[in-house]
Design a protein that fits this description.
- The protein is α/β, with parallel strands linked by helices.
- The chain has five domains: about 120 residues, Serine Threonine Protein Phosphatase 5, Tetratricopeptide repeat; about 80 residues, Immunoglobulin-like (Sandwich), CATH 2.60.40; about 270 residues, Alpha-Beta Complex (Spore Coat Polysaccharide Biosynthesis Protein SpsA, Chain A), CATH 3.90.550.10; about 150 residues, 3-Layer(aba) Sandwich (Rossmann fold); about 130 residues, 3-Layer(aba) Sandwich (Rossmann fold), CATH 3.40.50.2000.
- The longest helix has 16 residues.
- The protein contains 27 helices and 30 strands.
- Strands 8, 9, 10, 11, 12, 13, 14, 15 and 16 form a nine-stranded mixed sheet that branches. An eight-stranded mixed sheet has the order 20-19-18-17-21-22-23-24, with helices on both faces.
Length: about 800
């Protein structure tokens, strides 16, 4: 495949490599060479720059024509996760799927596709599911335009609601409209929008039932100081400086109840608070953004009637941004907290957020830790960690308050699930931008505009707020985020790079680690696994999975450039604690940390394990199990000669015996799922090389093999990433797939139909899940024989001595696959 030079070898191997992979995949599809198309498209989906939606559509097309429907639909789902409104992905999903994904694709195509035939097909799908009316709308400053179609004789009305009234038009069927048929009536429309500083709403109704509701952003320079609207009661005098908690509400009754209950309870329990009304530490201002849930509406009215909350009622849905800005117009003084209705707050959270925000005059916003708060997430950042129960949340918050008192950390921006904003910052920035849709990234935009006005955003590390996340908008979140990211990139093009740099340095790690240490002693025993980054970590995770399956709690001690980091395999705490063994005082602290983990044993899988760690384990009478996962001879002096060494494979035992003949070595085989490649597939003369790292040694061996076979009628596919993919792909018969995980290895190798596999070379590794799976694959396998012929090979396999040089190894492989001798 790499021998095709029609696009130019220099370009193929240079800066335009990813573009040419896409071009070649498209050409192969046109030529109906679907295996070749899959190979090119698959590599494109695995390399940088990050693949766009159309890359996954290319791979989906190849998979579909190869009869791999499940893989094709998975690729389309990936494309739609990147670009939810992508036309080509939605068209294929409409044709290929038969479930809810098909109906979702139909809705997307109705909203965004302009091809009448496609739209008619989409309407037919939705009509079969019971829908009777459909519409697509484009919004402009002066008007809205689009089309509407319906399947009965009912009259269609389109109403634009605005602050001073409504404009209603009756839409008459046009028999010549492209979507019109005997069964379907259709017409186009163009409706004038009156100028307004406030959001407007388009409502399309039939027989009194609204079937299309769309928010229209302000089309006149928004002052953000909006006029007071309908309220359930007059909003209280805000001349004092108490913070105001603003909670927009639309749906999810259960989450909203929990949120407001926690706010009221926290206000009652706030330091120095004696009553739960106007003398409290903060004001709760809820915005009912025209919720369609009558039970939720009644609940809000009950709380307002008992003076628990102040309530604003929007007669039409303004969306998250519009609801926030309307509330901001009601709060003339004092700081504010923007709070999602799917959060749960602890007592004292406002006071501590305020202390952080006012710890320096140039701080404009403060955001707490949360289980689900992007960079503010705990224990694992940028991940939706499980929502803790209320008692657990309170305990976490108390630990954060005690251990991270007065700790603030600068961050690229705050996050709006709980965003404290000072009055000085709010007056400078004014309000949220109306350019973003419904609750995603307008908070980031606000913070970045605040930065331009001289204000910093910080994390208040002494506060922990629970956050369910994505409950208000459900499946629409992905679409909203993707749309709003495009807007944010245009306004602040360097923001994403800044976030990547922040995540790499992770300044919040120390504050997370402080909370983790404050958790104290675990409530269950654990098994510690000493490992390192790279291939050793792959082996350790495989071992941790076995330990977890046996009902034990595994905690990895990972050696990296920063030291020894603790990471619970089940993603609970700890995740951020580093063990320092550089001084006596540090060792004492480390001993306390280790003791609190309640270890029953320490399993050593790292051939370069810190001697101080094993000494610490001995001092606490912790049993040490040492696994032969590599050449462990270098640490044998650290280990008790009485304790047997453990081997995960017979080859590991044979290897260890040849180097440590006096040691007792026992084999305890780990569970291995063999790699299964299609059995009925016609096999080509292809050698698949499966590396497990991108080390210089691995690269050197692959290059020697490629040089030996470059003039033979043999193709080489490297299933993984290497030190220099493009240099290897300069050989005429070699293709590199890009980074590949074991779970997808069979799919990656499918278009190449290899007859032979080669793995387990470079340096000895035992128990690595990929190596062990490939060595048991349903193909002939070559590998370095670390057992020195003590473990018999399977029939047809090729054990290669690890003592020969690269050229001899390449000759051995060539002879094995039947290439002529040089």
């Amino acid at each position: 495949m790499a021998s095709e030079q029609d696009d130019g070898a220099t370009a193929y191997l240079g800066l335009q490599h990813h573009f040419l992979l896409e071009r070649r995949a498209a050409r192969a599809l046109s030529a109906q060479d679907f295996n070749l198309a899959l190979a090119y498209a698959d590599r494109r989906c695995r390399i940088d720059p990050p693949p766009a939606a159309h890359c996954f559509v290319l791979r989906a097309e190849a998979n579909w024509h190869l009869g791999r429907q499940k893989a094709a639909l998975s690729d389309l789902a990936q494309a739609l996760s990147i670009a939810p409104t992508d036309i080509n992905a939605n068209r294929r999903m409409l044709l290929w799927s038969e479930d809810e994904r098909r109906r979702a694709a139909a809705s997307n195509l109705i909203a965004h596709d302009e091809a009448p035939n496609t739209v008619r097909s989409a309407i037919a799908v939705l009509q079969a599911s019971g829908q009777r009316r459909w519409a697509a709308v484009s919004v402009f400053d002066s008007h809205v335009a689009g089309w509407v179609a319906w399947g009965d004789e009912a009259e269609i009305e389109a109403t634009i609601s605005f602050e001073d009234g409504t404009l209603t038009s009756v839409l008459v069927a046009d028999p010549f409209h492209p979507l019109a048929s005997r069964q379907i009536k259709a017409t186009g429309f163009r409706l004038r929008r009156p100028p307004s500083e406030r959001p407007q709403q388009l409502i399309m109704t039939s027989e009194g039932e609204a079937f299309k509701i769309q928010r229209l952003p302000p089309n006149l320079g928004c002052t953000q100081r909006l006029s007071r609207g309908e309220t359930s009661k007059s909003v209280a005098d805000v001349s004092d400086a108490l913070p105001t908690i603003i909670v927009p509400v639309y749906g999810d009754l259960q989450a909203t109840r929990s949120c407001l209950q926690s706010l009221i309870q926290a206000r009652t329990a706030s330091p120095g608070t004696k009553t739960k009304s106007r003398d409290s530490a903060y004001r709760i201002l809820v915005v009912n953004d025209a919720t369609p849930d009558p039970e939720l509406r009644d609940h809000l009215l009950e709380l307002a009637a008992t003076n628990e909350i102040d309530l604003l009622i929007n007669p039409i849905n303004l969306g998250f941004v519009g609801a926030i800005n309307r509330a901001l117009s009601e709060v003339k003084n004092g700081d504010v907290v923007l709070l999602n209705a799917d959060t749960v707050v602890p007592p004292g959270f406002v006071e501590r957020l305020a202390a952080a925000a006012h710890s320096a005059p140039d701080i404009g916003t403060a955001t707490p830790f949360s289980n689900n708060g992007d960079i503010f997430s705990f224990p694992i950042p940028n991940q939706e960690n499980p929502m803790p129960g209320y008692d657990e949340l309170i305990a976490l918050d108390r630990i954060a308050a005690a251990t991270n008192k007065s700790i603030v950390v600068d961050v690229p921006s705050g996050i709006g699930f709980c965003l404290y904003v000072t009055r000085a910052c709010l007056d400078a920035v004014i309000g949220l931008s109306e350019s973003y849709e419904r609750g995603y990234l307008e908070d980031v935009d606000f913070c970045l505009r605040a930065r331009a006005s001289g204000f910093r955003s910080v994390c208040s590390a002494s506060v922990f707020v629970g956050h369910h996340g994505s409950r208000s908008f459900g499946e629409e979140k992905r679409k909203l985020v993707r749309r709003n990211l495009d807007i944010l990139d245009q306004r602040f093009p360097g923001y994403r790079r800044e976030c990547l740099a922040f995540e790499a340095v992770d300044p919040l790690r120390f504050a997370r680690a402080t909370i983790e240490r404050g958790l104290g002693r675990l409530d269950r025993d654990s098994v510690l696994i000493a490992t390192a980054m790279g291939s050793s970590l792959d082996i350790a995770r495989a071992r941790a999975a076995e330990i977890a399956n046996a009902g034990e709690h595994a905690i990895l001690i990972i050696r990296d450039l920063a030291g020894l980091r603790l990471s619970a395999y089940d993603e609970s705490a700890p995740q951020s604690i580093f063990i320092d063994l550089s001084s006596d005082a540090a060792k004492d602290r480390a001993a306390k940390i280790i003791a609190d983990l309640r270890p029953t044993r320490l399993e050593v899988l790292d051939p370069a394990v810190d001697a101080e760690l094993t000494r610490l384990a001995h001092s606490q009478a912790i049993r040490i199990d040492t696994w032969i996962t590599a050449d462990m001879e270098g640490i044998s002096s650290q280990l008790s000669t009485k304790a047997p060494l453990l081997a995960p494979t017979p080859a590991a035992e044979a290897f260890a015996r040849s180097r440590m003949p006096r040691r007792t070595i026992n084999t305890r085989s780990w569970k291995v799922e063999p790699l299964v490649l299609p059995s009925g597939q016609p096999l080509g003369r292809t050698l698949a090389i499966v590396p497990v790292s991108s080390s210089p040694v691995i690269f050197r061996v692959i290059r020697a093999i490629a040089a030996r076979l470059q003039h033979e009628a043999v193709s080489i596919v490297v299933a993984g990433a290497t030190l220099n993919d493009l240099e290897l792909m300069s050989f005429p018969n070699l293709f590199v797939t890009g980074n590949t995980h074991l779970a997808e290895l069979a799919d990656v190798l499918l278009p190449h139909a290899p007859s032979w596999l080669f793995t387990d070379f470079g340096d000895p590794l035992f128990g690595h899940p990929t190596i062990e799976a490939v060595r048991q694959a349903n193909r002939k396998v070559a590998y370095c024989d670390w057992s020195n012929r003590l473990v018999a090979p399977r029939p047809g396999d090729l054990p290669i001595s690890p003592d020969i040089d690269d050229a001899a190894l390449a000759d051995a492989l060539a002879s094995w696959i039947g290439a002529p001798q040089t």
